[in-house]
Amino acid sequence: MSSPKRIGKIEFGLLSPKAIRDMSVCKVIWPDTYDDDGFPYPKGLMDPNLGVIDPGLRCKTCGQKQGDCPGHFGHIDLAKPVIHVGYTRLIRKLLRVTCRKCGRLLLDLDEIERFSALEDDPYSAETIGEKDIKKERVCPYCGDQQFKINFEKPTSFVEIVTETGKDDMAHKTEHKLTSADIRERLEMIADGDLCLLGIDPTVARPEWTILTVLPVPPVTVRPSIILENGQRSEDDLTHKLVDIIRINQRFKENQDAGAPQLIIEDLWELLQYHVTTYLDNEVAGCPPARHRSGRPLKTLSQRLKGKDGRFRGSLSGKRVNFSARTVISPDPNLSIGEVGVPLDIVNEMSVPVRATKQNIEDIRSMIRIGPNRPTPRHPCGANYVNRPDGRRIRLIAGPEGNCDAVAEMIEPGWGIDRQLRDGDIVLFNRQPSLHRMSIMSHRIKVMNGRTFRLNPAVCPPYNADFDGDEMNLHVLQTEESRAEAELLIAVQENILSPRFGGPIIGGLHDHISGIFLLTNQMKWYSKSQFLYLLKYTNLEHLPEPGKIEDNVPYWNNKQAFSVILPEDINMFYKATCCRNCDVCTKDTHCPHDAYVRIVDGRLLSGTIDKKSVGAMDGAILNRIIRLHGVRRARDYIDDLTKLSIRAIMLNGFSYGINDTDLGKEEYKQIRDVLDKAEADVAQRISIYGQGHLEPMPGRTQEETLEMQVMKELGKARDRTGEIASRHLGFENSAVVMAVSGARGSMLNMAQMAGCIGQQAVRGERIVRGYEDRTLPHFKRGDKGSDAHGFVRNSYKSGLTPTEFFFHAIGGREGLVDTAVRTSQSGYLQRRMINALQDLKVAYDGTVRSTGGKIIQFKYGEDGTDPAKSASGLPVDVKGIAESVLKEAV
Amino acid sequence: MTRLNVLLHEMVPIHQIMTQEEVASLLADYDIIEEHLPKMYHDDPAVKACGAKPGMVIRITRKSQTAGEATSYRLVVRQPKK
User: Fold this and answer.
1) How far is CA B56 from CA A322, B20, B78, in A?
2) pTM of the predicted structure, to 2 decimals
3) Percentage of residues of chain A with pLDDT beyond 70
């Protein structure tokens, strides 16, 4: 079970000056790159010993050509030591925990015993940290007084020396430590003390964090590019190295000439700055080095860090061939398992096929068609022919082309890259790929146009819409991958979500509205109407007519829906449009037709709506999958979407501004309700003003008032909604959508027709704004409903300016919330994925990491696949009972 | 210092120290070595309360939302300091 090789330990060390000199092939002393003739300066930054970047030349060091030579390091001898920015924290720690005079750890033997738990394993043990040592103490070994050491970003250290003067007063003087001082101190630290600090002195002596010699990376790491005008453009790293060498030279000259201390210090600081920015150009407290154009230079650490850095960008990021991307658009005539692919894409992409005795004639005809298939219905062509010797022949169309000639040449054993055609299996994906349903396999349907087409019913798993979304398509190249794609990730295999054990694919808004309009109450259709409804479904024969009047047969709406159901399905449940009456009539006729009864695949009563067919609900779909499997379920969805769209087209479905109109009487009632509520609020405020308001337990008078006002106004808004809905019935499309669960709610209706209601920020009335008031339109201290964001108008009647402003405040809160939530949940998801990505369920039911470590002794503690569970439960008892008894349980 | 036995709290699952024979059969059942077991620190309050020492294996029987009751096994290891 364990992995074949285990990493025993990883050692992190520092490059010693000796190691840098040993690996160096060239001491770089000239800041120049190329001379006027285009030859590199010897001992310059482009010295031929450092590797080759020009094709045709050979490396002076290893003699290999460009591409084979890995490049070789050089070095620069620095005039004075400089600090490596990456180790400033380590330097600070070491300076603080060791004696400034003798370099010993500032702990006596007892303390070392107490803090360090070295025991037998020196690597697993706890090390001594800065906090273990008290500030400004005396060295236990040499008795020297220690001082506080301050670190100033980015690279300077200051020692605060306290001296007792003649007047017995402590004088504090700041003394800046030079890199050379620091290096001296670090050199003094004993090897044994370093072990206690968690540093292995054989690989990392602390003084190596102060650079005396700088490695120059090979030219292959920083290649220069030649622009169109023939000019050479150097890499950012080379630019930075030029700066370092130039300052280093000047520094040396000044030093040799015996320049004043001030100038030396300035140059030293400048050298430190250049080395710092060479290593990391985004250090806090350090202005970034810039290119002449003003763009900050991309130096060593910038190459590695961040999203486009070496790790996340180059190593973890993968690019693929055989992929396509374009905008998506809907096509309800496709099956949910299909995807419409434009001809342009289909002609470009290919699948390898090997020629055999059996298929060679087909292959020949494909080669003859060549790379330009003219129409979507035309048989597919081929783009390349692969000879057994590994050579590839590109097929070229037209009279000058080679298609016919190559077609004559091929024989079994050759292969071709065949263009895609109807029925080819591909992977389809939409980012962000948050769950496994974000990549599913579809079958291709070649189409005209320039967009991918997909059945709108598969939008929920991809979370796609058609406002400009783009999706990716990947063509599978091997038989194994095609088999896996078909068996594991085909759309129908993913109807049941492992998230909640129910169908994630199902009817959308139109489908739910349509099927609701079709199945609600009892309607009778003539034969032509009935056939109109079922025209595009897999209808094999008409059911017996429901009734015959005057020798004319009629079918009812429930029969139309029953046609697409399997014959052995039995279900009993309350639909979304159930009003939760006090006494449920159940089997006998429900006044709202909300009790669904399906017996032997026939809908006897009830309305089909969101509960039955909606995405993430889909009770019927769920039952069909469990009874007949996913393929039948896919056919059911295809039929359902087609039937429901026919149904919605039977009468049409639209909404306009006058659909929010109410009658005179309703408007008067709404006005009365709101007037009364506002008067009520005003009265409570006056009681509060007099101080007579009875506070609720645990609350102040003010809190009590706010709660009462919110409650009162909320009630008033709901009342207006009731008044409005009394006037609006199923002839109103918004009511249909709200009742069927397709989209929107009765609250949305109330806000359009009745009253928008109280606007809130953090669940309270709006109070922020000016001193004691929300807006200058109100008196200071006004507690009235209108002054704190109560909008008594409806969206239809229009808002007053102050109402509009309050509405914008409330709306903004929602936007901010969503923005914060998405970024937070995105990061949460990323961390989760990183933690769990390598876990798998082993054959013995345990969840294990790649090292064979057990994470869970039984997957999910019960070993159940949530996608195969009944909404989380292992057995669907109700479903089985209903199937057997054929009556409600 | 209060002497509260955490094992008696209703939200703390049952911790039992396993005998060597039990551990051997557990490791054989899952075809693993001790290293592969989930771990818990020797200074975990529940470990201290039941008196387990590093190297021992504890059987934890807890209520589970999905399975009713679930058992898990953890190897007691020394907590590296800090």
Assistant:
1) 54, 8, 11
2) 0.78
3) 97
